[in-house]
């Protein structure tokens, strides 16, 4: 649902947020009564980072254990390749798991 800020035509200084009520209908809430607004966002970035490290560590550990025949010079390239594939797989998986971020009140700078 998109956030909409509506200005009351009678009182232009009174800001109201339009939100859905329990029955699904719209309801105007004065901004003075709202203490916090949160939005749900995906964790794509965290999933990509976890996938990157998991892919790179997996090929690095396999190489150290002697399971693969990778030369020393090729190890970095294979770690980059597996890390990239891990990030590509981890990003959509991380997108499935959301987290809530507070957008109001704004964070202090």
Strand ordering within the main sheet: 1-2-3
**Which residues sit in consecutive blocks of at least 5 with pLDDT less than 50?**
5-12
How many domains comprise the coordinates? 2
Gyration radius, to the nearest Å? 24 Å
Helix-residue proportion = 40-55%
User: Termini separation (Å)?
Assistant: 27 Å
Percentage beta strand: 15-25%
Largest sheet data? 3 strands, antiparallel
Arithmetic mean of pLDDT: 78
Individual helix count? 2
Shape: rod-shaped
Order of helices and strands: EEEEHHE
Instruction: Indicate the structural class.
Output: alpha+beta
- Number of strand segments: 5
Q: Can you walk me through this structure?
A:
It is built from 2 helices and 5 strands; from the N terminus they run E-E-E-E-H-H-E. The protein has helices at 44-64, 72-96; strands spanning 5-7, 15-20, 26-30, 37-42, 98-104. It has 109 residues and is an alpha+beta fold. The model is unreliable at 5-12 (pLDDT under 50). Helix 1 (44-64) packs antiparallel against helix 2 (72-96). The strands form 2 sheets. It has a 3-stranded antiparallel beta sheet with strand order 1-2-3, with no helix packed on it. Strands 4-5 form a two-stranded antiparallel ribbon. It folds into 2 domains: 5-34, no CATH class; 40-101, no CATH class.
């Amino acid at each position: 649902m998109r956030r909409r800020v509506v200005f009351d035509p009678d009182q232009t200084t009174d800001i109201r947020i339009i939100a859905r009520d329990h029955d699904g209908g719209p309801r105007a809430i004065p901004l003075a009564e709202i203490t916090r607004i949160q939005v749900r966002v995906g964790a794509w970035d965290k999933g990509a980072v976890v996938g990157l490290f998991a892919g790179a560590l997996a090929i690095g550990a396999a190489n150290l254990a002697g399971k693969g025949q990778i030369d020393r010079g090729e190890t970095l390239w294979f770690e980059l390749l597996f890390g990239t594939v891990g990030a590509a797989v981890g990003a959509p998986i991380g997108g499935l798991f959301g987290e809530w971020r507070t957008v109001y009140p704004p964070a202090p700078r």
